[in-house]
Design brief:
The chain is mainly alpha-helical and 196 residues long. The protein is 80% helix and 0% strand.
Length: 196
């Protein structure tokens, strides 16, 4: 596995603005960091489950139809380039549409939002089809990678919870530069996939 492109893709996709991070920041500002940790753990467990399901599904799909491997790689690279484009275009809105009664169900929201979060679903499919399946054929590796990505989900959403106001000020001031750097790193990751 090309480790640097994998880590860059995971970190950029996990730590850049998206539904999980905006919701974590919003919940932390409303309910405080301690209560928002439930949401962050839900995000991590939901993401672990999503990536594990993507791994198993892709493995079975590739086993049944080996010809699908190339289209999945093309899908993964296309999504990375699309994400780079969207990152450059991002204007920084954070309306997540969650009402204030969510406080009692933060873990459940964090878990289930992964299954309706297009960024998370596409990320799961991309990371599995581009970085995991071409190099590994073991359910134990799929499980370990899923745990790693679940932990990254917890760390990412927790960071946005804890440092939400700092990130908000930083992104407001340096949004264009930040977005260009993140987009270029995503393009690098996509090129690295094509070259391997």
């Amino acid at each position: 596995m090309p480790l640097l492109p994998f880590l860059l893709f995971v970190l950029i996709s996990s730590f850049t603005p998206g539904p999980n991070n905006f919701m974590a920041m919003s919940f932390a500002s409303r309910y405080g960091f301690k209560k928002t940790i439930k949401f962050c753990i839900g995000v991590g467990l939901g993401f672990f489950t999503l990536v594990l399901l993507c791994s198993i599904f892709n493995h079975l799909l590739i086993k049944v139809m080996p010809i699908i491997k190339t289209p999945l790689t093309i899908l993964g690279v296309s999504y990375m380039l699309y994400l780079a484009f969207k990152t450059i275009k991002d204007k920084g809105t954070n309306n997540n549409g969650i009402d204030n009664n969510a406080k009692n169900n933060l873990f459940v929201i964090g878990f289930f939002v992964q299954f309706i979060n297009p960024k998370g679903i596409l990320f799961g499919i991309t990371v599995v089809s581009s970085f995991i399946h071409p190099y590994y054929n073991s359910y134990i590796i799929y499980f370990i990678c899923s745990i790693f990505l679940g932990v990254v989900g917890i760390v990412s959403s927790s960071s946005w919870s804890l440092f939400g106001t700092i990130f908000q000020k930083f992104l407001a001031k340096y949004r264009s530069i930040f977005n260009i750097i993140m987009a270029l790193l995503l393009v690098y990751s996509a090129i690295a996939i094509i070259n391997h």
